[in-house]
Amino acid sequence: MTGLLLAEARRFLSRRSFRVIGVLAVVAVIGAGVLVFVESSKSLSASLPQAKQMVTECHQAIGSGPTARIRNGGLTVRDVASCPTIRQAEILFDKRFHYTDTTKSTTQNVAFPLFFLAFAIAASFVGAEWATGMMTTTLTWEPRRGRVLLAKVIPALLILGAAVIVLFAFMAVVFIPIGVFRGITTGMTASFWGHLAGLWLRAALIAMFGASLGIGLATLARNTVAALGIGFVFVAILDPIFSHLWRGRFGPWLLMQNLQRAMRMPIEHVVGHAAFGNQVTMTVQSATRPAILLSIYAVGLLAAAYATFRARDVT
């Protein structure tokens, strides 16, 4: 079993798709860092021109705004409105790079593209075996199909999870000089790094979940394109549709809402009665339930993939 695991790990690392996507991800982080460095500023006064323009346009809009007639008095008065001060507008257009806030929010948002990339890489990893006939060759010297499938799942999940953590750590390092020279680095305490490491681990687990879905669907469909198509249809079409049916009742059971909750992102929560009007609030909910639910989904799909893999002929 150890030899089979090492062989599959080496095959995964040698795949061109994994290497190309890894290089592109590193280049994207560096490019984003350079772009943010150029567009940010160390001083709050850099946003002064935009702040003055906003305040001026606001006063002009109020001065030329519509009038409202008072029914019983016959007088006309200007609409009551107020404009922000220049100081308030400066904060709105603040160009300083806030290291702690930006690094945390970027980690949360980038976790979702990495989930889809992990899904695609893992699906192609298994789908290519069926396309090239390599699966038949593998089963000639290891006929126990459970071991074969497990040997593909474990390296894919571990390597992709580790790759996500390394990528986020690299991004955090790239952002440090931007915060030092073009922004603010206050708040870089031990608790911040602990919270950030927790986000990295969550993102890695989400990527591992995506990899398990990719392997499961590719094993069921025996084709990379079919697995990617099924994933696209569900995420882009079915998930959004069901998440809005019956006042979002299915949302807590669907993929995207649980991924958002796993990354501690606020999600929409409908409160109130339909007869009196619904209210939508944004809340951050516990990540325990999504972790359990997504694990059940992954294990269930892999179990179904193993059942079909064991029952069906490989030719």
Q: What are the secondary-structure elements, in order, as H or E? A: HHHEEHEHHHEHHHEEH
Major sheet characteristics: 2 strands, antiparallel
Percentage of β-strand residues = 5-15%
Number of DSSP strand runs: 6
SS element count, helices: 11
Q: Give me the secondary-structure category.
A: mainly alpha
Share of helix, binned: over 70%
Query: What's the number of domains?
Result: 2
Mean model confidence by pLDDT: 83
Query: What's the end-to-end separation, in Å?
Result: 24 Å
User: What is the approximate shape?
Assistant: elongated
Q: Over all CA atoms, what is the radius of gyration?
A: 26 Å
Strand order of the largest sheet: 1-2
List the uncertain runs. Answer: 66-80
